[in-house]
Design brief:
Blueprint: H1 16-22, E1 24-34, E2 37-42, E3 57-60, E4 65-69, E5 75-82, E6 90-94, E7 100-109, E8 113-122, E9 125-136
Antiparallel strand pairs: 1-2, 1-3, 1-9, 3-4, 4-5, 5-6, 6-7, 7-8, 8-9
Length: 137
């Protein structure tokens, strides 16, 4: 077996923001707790949520804007920003026709996946979502 020696090679990892803004993201797996009922969605598999997450997409741009496509394939404007220097929390504001603001917590961004957890109030009831997103090639 021959040995290979590499001199003066610098490997630069893309930043979390660069990974986030490179491609479109879709839900791969999601756990949902609403009104005390736990449900589960797996892309191409089980779906006990009653929501078709297959159509949902997020596109993030470097300028803090983007596009959100909801479960009915309706596009919305998106304003977003990381809320700390460690990239583990973000604020997302979805535009009309169904405007909403979410906070993503416990964010983990890697080269080909994104994890987030969010807590929202829907009709006076707590909604907890924990999701893994994957990039659309």
């Amino acid at each position: 077996m021959d040995a290979v020696t590499v001199h003066d090679t610098v490997c630069i990892e893309p930043s979390k923001q660069e990974i986030l803004t490179q491609k479109v993201w879709q839900i791969d797996e999601l756990y949902r707790c609403y009104q005390g009922v736990n449900t589960h969605y797996v892309r191409g598999g089980v779906n006990t949520t009653g929501v078709n997450y297959f159509n949902m997409r997020f596109t993030f741009t470097d300028g803090g804007t983007g596009t959100y496509v909801d479960e009915t394939s309706t596009p919305h404007t998106l304003d977003w920003s990381f809320t700390g220097t460690d990239y583990s929390n973000a604020s997302l504001s979805i535009g009309p026709p169904y405007a909403a603001t979410f906070t993503w917590n416990l964010i983990e961004i890697r080269e080909n996946y994104l994890h987030s957890t969010s807590l929202a109030n829907v009709g006076g009831n707590a909604l907890l979502l924990s999701a893994r997103y994957v990039q659309i090639p």
